[in-house]
Amino acid sequence: MADVTLEALLQEGRTFPPSEDFARGALLRDGRLYDVAAGDPEAFWATQAGELLDWSEPWHTVLEWELPFAKWFLGGRLNASYNCVDRHVAAGHGAQVALLWEGEPGDARQITYAQLLDDVSRCANALKALGVRKGDRVAIYLGMVPELPVAMLACARLGAAHSVVFGGFTSDSLRDRINDAECKVLITGDGAWRRGNIVPLKEIADAAMTETPSIERCLVLRRTAQADVAMQDGRDFWWHDLVDAQAPECPPEPMDAEDLLFILYTSGTTGKPKGIMHTTGGYLTQVAFTHKYVFDLKPETDVFWCTADCGWVTGHSYIVYGPLANRATSVMYEGTPDYPDKERFWSIVEKYKVTTLYTAPTAIRTFMKWGTQYSDAHDLSSLRLLGSVGEPINPEAWVWYWKNIGGGNCPVVDTWWQTETGAIMISPLPGTTVAKPGSATFPLPGIGSDIVNDEGVPVPIPGGGYLVLTQPWPSMLRGIWGDPDRYRDTYWSRFEGRYFAGDGAKRDDEGYFWLLGRVDDIMLVAGHNISTTEVESALVSHPAVAEAAVVGRTDAMTGQAVSAFVILRSGNEPTDALVTELRDHVAHHIGPIAKPKTILFAEDLPKTRSGKIMRRLLRNVAEDETLGDTTTLADPSVVEGIKARYLSTSPDDEG
Ligand code: WT7
Fold first, then answer.
1. Ligand 1 center from residue 204 Cα (angstroms)
2. Which among 349, 324, 335 is positioned nearest to 98, based on CA atoms?
3. Which residue out of 317, 418, 425, 480 has the highest number of ligand 1 atoms within 8 Å of its CB and is therefore the one to mutate?
4. What distance lies between CA 266 and its chain's CA centroid?
5. Distance between CA 397 and CA 581 in Å, rounded?
6. Cα torsion angle, 358, 360, 364, 366, sign
7. Residue 325: how many CB atoms within 10 A of its CB?
8. How does pLDDT run across 319-357, given as a tens digit for each residue?
9. Helix (H, G, I), strand (E, B), or coil: what is residue 316?
């Protein structure tokens, strides 16, 4: 990757400083914290841990680093549930709303911190009654209902690690995750709402539980009130019977800073899912720190909405632990952006006067495709800050978001991180960083990162290569459950002494970081490294294009050739003339070398359930291979459709 021809890459010249208004009221108005942290990262993180959290026992050592195993805040004791709930109530904020929950069919609930304390304590007592003890693992398989964060916090209260399994996963996925971590109890529901339909969670869980010997008890929440929910005597208990009958007091277990808080499975491109482990003190410190400063949180006035699902790390860190540790008021939404109509997000923003919206590029590109009439129909003037996470955001989508959702006066924070990093690592600080659309800008204070070439040698600025993290950070994964060797191999063996993130990145001449996607998504065309992200962004910068996915396919002439799959914005026709226009557009923006050899117009793209484009499958299509594993797709029919279309259209093959 050392030979990335930067001149040829997409040039993004637009810059967006924070408005004077925003900067004036921001928690951080200058870059001093970067210097403080760089001077002594350990002291910096210790200050944050002390300021942001309550400890029942102070730590004696900030960091013990035996590469690649880190321990933070050794000797310190604290409880995550206490930090997220009890202490706010004790400080007189019991009446403040913690969760503004919006249910899919239109029902709504507001849960104050005082109510949350009761709910969490009752649930913890119920789990105790079911045999859960400190050190156990509990699987949680629910939709986006308030009982999901309640269950997570109840586990944390007892010192049991939770393993949340996204409610869209199959019984096989649920079974494998339960078995890998040997969970003792499963918390699920009768069903979950999805676009007006019911996902039969209990039925799926029952199928999984035929092959999960470690599960002793199952707690079942009634959400959809379907008629037939089979309950197995002695194993299955209704939440409303068991939890509601408990006392609303349960003393939080003082946990060691390094005790396991949760396991969360992440499915890499190869191999079985990895159980990523996060511990208590470091994780909570960094999620609280990033949530406060990246989102400029004002707990008295902000209404924070992270649209992720609690089944992903984004939901763990920015629906549950970060916001609650910081005593935020958050919106939690059960449904999807398009049900019952395409205005759903914007009516929620208007209804709750959301100030801070944190969502994913895939959602933003969908909104672009639909057009602005849906957001225009609502008063979005409460918004003051926008965030993006999950994939590189194309500059055009960034600007669309800034302009049409933010009304041109909300900073946009593009936040790079991973399940493994636990918290945001690279992001603007909204009151001080001059943003560039498509760039996650700079590593946050206290974070060490670099870009290296194949040999692990740092690439000078400007230049591109592999993103690495160069020093331990508090919320770093503590390993992979049951597989220390895989932890070492996956993250620490590629480059000596540094964490390999698996992402390509470049720095421009001002040192801004530009994430270029997973390294498997870099193409080699006639000897040039070309990032799929940049060709996609060039395509999306054309007014007819809403979304694009680009892959490399084998080519006799150039080694690899660029193959593009394009979704048009509503009102545009898929013509041959447009194909030519788009190819020229890419040539103009990046250079002739990056011109797609083939362009296929599609209705939809194959995406994971968390919204990431699965280029691996599009590569199979472009190479005319049999499709690889499609079980992690949100909708497997999408890629079948594209494959059929691809074979029936003769690819445009002139150079
Ligand atoms: C991968 C991690 C982080 C929570 C959600 C995803 C990609 C994430 C960005 C961003 C460019 C991004 C990377 C990363 N990614 N955020 N702002 N810009 N790429 O967590 O499922 O563990 O995925 O998502 O490729 O490695 P995850």
1. 29
2. 324
3. 418
4. 11
5. 20
6. negative
7. 24
8. 999 999 999 999 999 999 999 999 999 999 999 999 999
9. helix
